[in-house]
Amino acid sequence: MMKYNKRLLLLLVMVAMTIHEQHTVNCITVHNSYSIKHNVPHGASEHVTSSHTFDTKNPDPWGNKQYKEVTITKNVPVPVPIKYERHVAIPVRIPVPFAIHNKIPILVERKVPVYVEKPFPVQVDRPVPYALPIEVPVFHKVAVEVPKPYPVHIPKPYPVFIKKAVYVKQRPQAEGGQRVKKSPGKLSKTQRLRI
Does the keyword Signal apply (predicted)? Predict the structure, then answer.
């Protein structure tokens, strides 16, 4: 029973390894529309190299393709790590100039030469400076002594203490000195509002 379990386990491990290897090999897919869909495994590196040797049948210079070189590094589960590199050429689309797609004639207006009469130079006598018969007075600046302003003393305001008059209100003393009590029947206005 133990031998059967070991064989089954070994068979499952081998199947898993082959499936994993096939998956890593087939992970790079190239379609007709040159779209690249691939999953680069962990630890892999890829770089683009330009090559024109793959497409020699197409004489068009824009028809040459560019290939993408993918370096895949795979870690094999063994005691000693083994690394191998696999170079896969993947075609990459090169941008085509816009003039190839759009071959529509465009009407351009041609420039027609128009004859214009050019001005020819005429000899003109230059003005010659000469002395004026009338004397023009020239005003020169003359220094005039101006008396300097003298300082004027302006008195500054200062605080002055003013004594205020104190008023004392005196109450007139009531004559007799006896208070008259109100009858309980009569209530004042405030007492009525409270009730």
Answer: yes
One digit per residue, the tens of pLDDT, for the chain of length 195 reads: 556 677 788 888 888 877 766 554 444 444 444 445 556 666 555 555 444 445 556 555 555 555 555 666 666 565 666 676 777 777 777 776 655 555 677 788 888 888 888 888 888 888 888 887 888 888 999 999 988 888 888 889 998 888 888 888 877 776 666 666 666 666 667 776 666
What span, in angstroms and rounded, lies between the C-alpha atoms of 44 and 38?
Answer: 12
**3-state DSSP call for residue 67?**
strand
With tokens 């207006």, the residue in question is 109
Cα R_g (the chain), whole angstroms: 58
